[in-house]
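URGENT: need a sanity check before tomorrow's submission.

F., can you look over the Sigma-54 interaction domain-containing protein record below? I want to be sure the sequence and structure line up before it goes out.
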Amino acid sequence: MIKNNKKRIEERLERFTEKYVYSGNFKGITTLQIAEELGIRRNLVSQYLNELVEEGKAIKSKTRPVLFTYVMHNATRTIVHNKKDIFNELVGYNGSLREAVEKCKAAVYYPSKDMSILLTGDSGVGKSYIAGLIHKYAEDEGKIKSGSPFIIFNCADYADNPELLSANIFGYIKGSFTGAEKDHLGALELADGGYLFLDEVHRLSAEGQEKLFVFMDKGLFKRVGESKAERNVNVRFIFATTEDPQQALLQTFRRRIPLSVNIPKLDDRPIDERLIMIYRFFKEESIEIEKDIYK
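Structure tokens as predicted:
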């Protein structure tokens, strides 16, 4: 039975990604390359590749030409088989969160800092914890320097004051507004060389989202109050939201975030994982209060 074109394209993308993950030269493949190798029309290849991205099986870059890579379930683990995998601390890393973990690892291994990640899911499912693991994994794999900053910024803290929210992300200069008595570094500059985790990103105003995607696109920004100077920092982004990104975020902003990772509700996790979490909570509390409260 002849395989359908979409399956052939998926298998070719998977083989290519596996080859380059193992070689350490993890880049990607273009629509044209696959079209020429498989003898399938380019527009059809593009359609199927984008469907794989929507299904969470592939990732595409923001470069020109666009590069596609397959989300491997074994390749990234093979690279680190002699190292302690920090994600093993995550309950469900090889179960209900396996796909989420592999996507996070793929983003870390992407050769550019442009592979931003959006973590979605209800409050309390572990988005902040996973963001911290992504940062630690990047350090362990040498993708960022050991001791690189991990800046956590909750957009909800300034949701009622868009100007102050923008000032705290991008920084401001002395005299730019009432109370600005000296120059102030924003979260972007504090995160230089590491990760900036923007939690509750849906609380970022439309203007704030626009300023952020301009930085993500061009790599330049200005502090509040600056008119000419343009600054540059090297930052990787992790975003998190409890809302539907399609409704809560600008389309232009969403396009700058190529990878979305959904964290399932606790009620949707297998019973064995939930029992492990309960046991772990008791164990951690036991250590905290120095009492034997579990057996």
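My own read: The two ends are 57 Å apart (CA to CA). Confidence is low (pLDDT under 50) at residues 74-82. If you see anything odd, call me.
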